[in-house]
């Protein structure tokens, strides 16, 4: 098209017309014409009458001519009135059409202004012919700055004009895809945005194309949101995938478990099947608590700490979430440290027995001597031939009793030093006391010290590992006996008392006393020349592992008091009263 | 089994009932008379110092120990050989007891032959010691018959001095010395100087 910018394309004219509201006076023109006409007609009739008055007689010819003239005037008048009526009607139609057009235009304009889509029209030469306020807002340039502009447009990104030109060429050639184009633009303040642009041809009243209407939507925000969502999802997935915990979600289906989600750790251990989840459920199907269980997986050959929870899945189904942490190494460490601890305790017990070896040997020698004596007596009787069967049997019976006694000593030693799993159980304090004291007495006798125990009646049972507590008690008793070797007063007291839910056992000596009793519990601190300095340290570890306390304090009467506490066992139900004996036997 | 020639008593002192009882059975089966006691004090209360026998005692006992018992018996001058029962060799203890006159040790568990030998030997020794003790007692009784002047003379005879020298020492005449000498020979019921010497010289060995 060669024509310059068409005025009709500039919206201001419509706008101004709409502003001058003359719709109500469309009848004014016909009325004024009618008035003028009536005025002329009135003047004409008045002149006619003046003429009649002044002329007394008229010729017939004149009269005929006059009548004809009047007829013509009347006809003309009627014609004029009809024309005026027609004009009035037309004006009214025009006026209504105009009002409708203005209303329509206003509606369109309001629509155009209210929407966020930026509208822009290119003429066939690629000049901007129209922009709407949304477009102006979008790019920050005024309408006046844009109308009539040719390439390069001010909103083009600097340095990327070629690309923009290419887009424009596509646009002007009508090859724009119906799904629109994604374009980038720069605002007046330099910020950039991304927009999706749709194009449709603009035609004039004759249907001839006069330009291209483009609509642009700022998709920066949706794009940002979409990108943010994607990024958030990616972060979330990265975290989930990066977790060392095996996370899986399954749904119960009639065919079994359906794996809905599994992170990488899970897939690494179990593959993308629901088998691992089922294995770690450990048969707890349907039973859901938030408890944590430790399960060994045979397929992965590892230990897991497993949490289970029911969840509402995205589709509303109730599903099982499982978080399984690989604790194999932790368990190995715990196991190693437990074994280490047990070894230390065992070594300590062996050491104690080693220190008591000579006393124990003596203790064992007694029944052996007796057995030998009884046997020799019996054989002497037989050899002499002068014997009574009863006497012989009595001697043999006595020998058997002594063998039993020796066996008991040995089994007690074995019990004390054998390597056993620590067993926390309900146990009678008296039993522990008796065992420990019978050991300690072997030594005490040698050093001529008596051991006296003071037990309250109805003492509740303790919750403890009897061997370990025996070990602690024996250690304390031995220390006490050794401390009192040079003393005047030679009775070592063991006092048991009950204190709320605790049982306290005090070993009270009247020995040489100690300057700093707490130092005794330090490793490798010993007051004995041959001591290793580990005994009391191990004792304290043992008592603390029983949730008790072991401490030493000076005895006001001279010497030292060692005390330790043990938790009481829960009150016993009548039917379980046999248990401790069974466990102990 | 041949019964021992002298029916003497074996005293057993041991705090361990089984050891004590079994030892009693063993010794009785071998024909000894046995008296057993659970403690040293109990034994001392029952023992009369002229009883002949052998004491088998544990070294380590609550209350009075074996060593203390040994000292107590020495103080009472009881002619009782002691055999100590020990669990295991304890050299300083053994030396100390031997110095004080313990004759032997029995290590637990006992060997029957050892036990029998020791007990037999000890009893023999006890009897020997008892008869020696008896002889010494007689000897002392005889010596006590001498007057102090006669004892002075006897000392000098034993020392090998001549009558003349003795007379000079004591400021008496030779005649008087000869008279004392005759009296001594008569009182001690000896006829030769050699016999006299024998009696006089056994004197210091009497006290063990």
Structure overview:
- The complex is a heterodimer of chains A (about 575) and B (about 210).
- Chain A is α+β, with helices and mostly antiparallel strands and about 575 residues long.
- Chain A folds into five domains: about 5-110; about 115-225, Beta-Lactamase, CATH 3.30.450.20; about 245-325, Beta-Lactamase; about 330-420, Helix Hairpins, CATH 1.10.287; about 420-585, Histidine kinase-like ATPase, C-terminal domain (Heat Shock Protein 90), CATH 3.30.565.10.
- Chain A contains 16 helices and 17 strands.
- A five-stranded antiparallel β-sheet of chain A has the order 2-1-5-4-3. A five-stranded antiparallel β-sheet of chain A has the order 7-6-10-9-8.
- In chain A, helix 14 (about 465-485) packs antiparallel against helix 15.
- Chain A is rod-shaped.
- Residues about 1-20 and about 575-585 of chain A have low confidence and may be disordered.
- With about 210 residues, chain B is of the alpha/beta class.
- Chain B folds into two domains: about 10-130, Response regulator (Rossmann fold), CATH 3.40.50; about 145-205, Arc Repressor Mutant, subunit A (Orthogonal Bundle).
- Helix content of chain B is about 55%, strand content about 10%.
- Chain B has nine helices and five strands, in the order E-H-E-H-E-H-E-H-E-H-H-H-H-H.
- Chain B has helices spanning about 15-30, 40-45, 65-75, 90-100, 110-145, 150-160, 165-170, 175-185, 195-200; strands at about 10-15, 35, 55-60, 80-85, 105.
- A five-stranded parallel β-sheet of chain B has the order 2-1-3-4-5.
- In chain B, helix 6 packs across helix 8 (about 175-185) and helix 7 (about 165-170) crosses helix 8.
- Chain B is elongated, with a radius of gyration of 23 Å.
- At the A-B interface, helix 11 and helix 12 of A face helix 1 of B.
